[in-house]
Write a structure and sequence with these properties.
InterPro entries: Globin-like_sf, Globin/Proto. The chain is mainly α. It contains 7 helices and 2 strands, in the order βααααααβα. The structure holds protoporphyrin IX containing FE (HEM). Protoporphyrin IX containing FE binds next to α2, α3, α4, α5 and α6.
Length: about 130
């Protein structure tokens, strides 16, 4: 390995998910294409939101039953207000992969990426119709 970053570990706990979600949001909120959409979090409240997103991923990856949000309606509303274009979905996907790869390795890190890919496609279709 040529990288000087700390050794990546298995993605295996809620604390790991929280670290991943934090890194992803740091990137997404600074990204020129995504930032205008994520600005809504200044109103909704970033801290509360990160807990909801952590619950979501904990359920997806480790089958807990914490997440009780409304995934599709929330993004439909975002699409109506800001435009969740195919380019924005693709950027979201790239940043998610980069964040996972930066921090983690192993089977569940791979699942975090493949599950996200499937959800990007499904969510893009159900919000934008393409
Ligand atoms: C163009 C792509 C996307 C953008 C710009 C985006 C942005 C956002 C924003 C700004 C919120 C907060 C909305 C609010 O509370 O009013 C949100 C909620 C959320 N997003 Fe996304 N998102 C995208 C795609 C995705 C994808 C592909 C996933 C999952 C794989 C995801 C997971 C979530 C979850 C779990 C919530 C919380 C929903 C709830 O409150 O129950 N997002 N998203």
């Amino acid at each position: 390995m040529t990288s000087s970053r700390p050794r990546r570990t298995e993605l295996s706990s809620r604390a790991d998910i929280d670290g991943l979600v934090e890194l992803f949001y740091d990137q997404a909120m600074a990204d020129p294409l995504l930032a205008p959409v994520f600005e809504v979090l200044a109103i909704v409240g970033l801290d509360e939101h990160l807990v909801v997103v952590g619950d979501f991923w904990e359920q997806v990856l480790f089958r807990t039953t914490r997440y009780e949000g409304s995934f599709t309606p929330v993004h439909r509303a975002l699409h109506g207000k800001y435009g969740l274009t195919p380019e924005r979905f693709e950027r979201w996907r790239e940043l998610w992969h980069e964040s996972v790869d930066e921090l983690f390795t192993g089977v569940d890190a791979d699942r975090a990426k493949s599950k996200a890919d499937a959800m990007v496609t499904a969510l893009r279709r159900s919000t934008t119709g393409v």
